[in-house]
Amino acid sequence: MGFSVAEVIVDVATYHVDRPFDYAVPQEWREIIEAGCRVKVPFGPRNVLGFIVGLKNETEVPPNKIKPIAQILDIEPVLTEEMLKMAKWLKNETICYEIDALQVMLPSALRAKYEKIAVLQVELAKLPQEVQTLFGKRQKANFKEFEKAELLPVLKELIASGCVTIENIVKQQGSVKEVRMVEITSDMQVLEKALESASRAAKQRQLIIWMQAHLGEIIAPHHLYEETGATATVLQGVIEKGAARFVQEEVYRDPFTKGVTRTQSLQLTQEQNVALQAISKSMDAADATTFLLRGVTGSGKTEVYLQAIQKVLDEGKEAIMLVPEISLTPQMTERFRSRFGELVAVMHSGLSVGEKYDEWRKIQQGKVSVVVGARSAIFAPFTNIGLIILDEEHESTYKQEDSPRYHARDVAIWRSQFYQCPVILGSATPALESFARAKKGVYTLLSLKQRAMNQAMPTVYVADMREELQNGNRSMFSEQLIEGIRLRLERREQMVLFLNRRGYSSFVLCRDCGTVVQCPNCDISLTYHRTQEKLKCHYCGYEEHVPQICPQCQSEHIRYFGTGTQKVEEEIYKLFPEARVLRMDVDTTKHKGAHEEILQAFGEGRADILLGTQMIAKGLDFPNITLVGVLSADTSLHLPDYRAAERTFQLLTQVSGRAGRHDKPGEVVIQTYTPEHYAIELSKMQDYEPFYEREMFLRRRSGYPPYYYVALVQVSHEDVMMAAEYAGRAADWLRANLSEKVAIIGPTTASISRLQNRYRYQCLIKYKIEPNLIPVLQRLLAMYRADWIKQGILMTVDLDPSTI
Ligand code: ADP
Ligand code: ZN
Ligand code: ZN
């Protein structure tokens, strides 16, 4: 019985073998093995990691050719059946290798790169005597030892009956800690008896009486001592009377740095209530509706999420809550933990490998029911999902830029269909695609038009920086913004100053010959970092010391220009020496927990001004912020990207929404050199729909999404001629194989024409309906994998590029 052949997807990137291979299952494993387990299998000259994706009893491989699995790494699957299905879908949807689709769903501790640090252990203490003796006095055993002792079938039974627990221990960074806990008996009679027999030990009696009010609870000894005043000796005495016992508990590395105060559900506003009712109804009907919750900033979307999740938990189901980036997770996590306490796990890139693994395990073992996290949390290994939420659904961070190039929104919708549960896409400024779908009825639109406590939307002023210059103001602050800052400092109110970072950081320029110091590997100017007196490339990490003389003309008139956050900070201090500024950017948030610290300090009023980049545009909810300044609205406007206007509008609306969220009215000053641009004009009104109409008109005219789909093929090579040549071949091939209705633009140089020493070309494919597209692109990729790659070409295909 059992299965004798396993289909395994191997982690072999160089061979590009993208199909399951058959391996023989060792005799003793046949009854036990399951799909979704990781294995080591011989592949070519070495053993590689693989995932079992199927089991069977027949194979076309001749008996003398089939190789046995070398080692089985899991006794319980790390991937569920749902995930195996999802991987197949992802592979097709994003044209990636199945191995990439499988590994993206797992915490890195379980992927090939780290697999050595995750070791299975079996807790021996609870084993039946006859088995336990085989292991001497040890508490734990590696499960390979069970394999050697031919005890696997027993082990599987023991797991099923709950006699043993099995654990992938990540041996890094402190690991899961085992601690001794006190478990109080849940038998009242036992306690009565203990109380009697302790008639002459007053302290023991005291403790037992306390225990009577805590039947069945598990508590850490030091908590128990604090709580009851008992000593270890007293506890020992009580334990000997059978009233309690010591148990081992796993304690997870706690990524939360501080405790939270609990909050209750708020009384919903009329609009919030309508939204919640619609979502509840869909949950009851299990109709997998995707809702687009469009609510102006401060309208209380989060409260709707919280109450919808409460309903999910009441029904014994689980919820995934995605936020666009790690800088937003502290605030969101706190709001979630204050409502749901220990039921919340977090997942984002700021956690260590070990912490991420622990959070993942909590989810997998059903110890939590809610996960708050960034993009990858969409793969949380829940098995009974009742709701998935994407907050700020328009954010580009939901799209992964490496293989598999998935969008979390698509994965969310796939999973919601699997579990027949709703999805909520929330935003004040939905992606054009999403709003268009809502208008067509593909998504169900829910609107929150008022702020939750009926506060006015902030007043927005646009400062024309050209005019400022004409009036002799050469500083980076308009008169209006300076006046605004002065007033807030006087009134002791808080401000957010927002710097549109991209293309806006300091660079070093020679005043004599105009040379800008560039990265030797990329077509990008280097960014000046004052604290280290260094120039750095933000794309490849290259750094060098600030040159004293121009590398081109040897002039000494070389200095830094442009405006980074550090420069802004200096300017503020020049104008307002008394101002207290907190800076939040890549430099100040390098260490772990830095985001939390900065936000906490600001929340506690330890600064007047929060100055930062993209990181501070969203999510902040502080009552005392009454002024938001956008130092230069234009930078994101002039990026060579069809979404530039949309991005700018979204950013301006988001950041403006930080002002006046509570009782004090808010004001926004947007500084720009192009006040007449519609994205800026319309962001003054803080109204999404006029912008939507305008932008849709332009998209239709120029043939961009959502009217057309786009796909992007990028080709790179160290040699510029080679890159151009193969990009040309790709374009020709696409033209020959796709229908005439498809527009193929290119090859052109990519917007960053050289990156990490590689020249980059691209072809843009625009289409409406092209059933052949995926197969054609798959064939192009096959050609590349079989041949082009040997020439040093790298090629990527992205079916939903977030930038072009
Ligand atoms: P959004 O996510 O839409 O920007 P939030 O959920 O952050 O808005 O809500 C903005 C503010 O309004 C928060 O301080 C929140 O606590 C408060 N709030 C939300 N809903 C209500 C409500 N029903 N009653 C009172 N205050 C609310
Ligand atoms: Zn020079
Ligand atoms: Zn570089």
From TrEMBL:
Source superkingdom: Bacteria
Binding site for Zn(2+) 1: 510, 513, 550, 553
Domain Helicase ATP-binding: from-to ranges: 282-448
Comment on bound cofactor: Binds 2 zinc ions per subunit.
Pfam families: DEAD, Helicase_C, PriA_3primeBD, PriA_C, Zn_ribbon_PriA
Subunit and partners: Component of the replication restart primosome.
Protein name: Replication restart protein PriA
Lineage: Bacteria, Bacillati, Bacillota, Bacilli, Bacillales
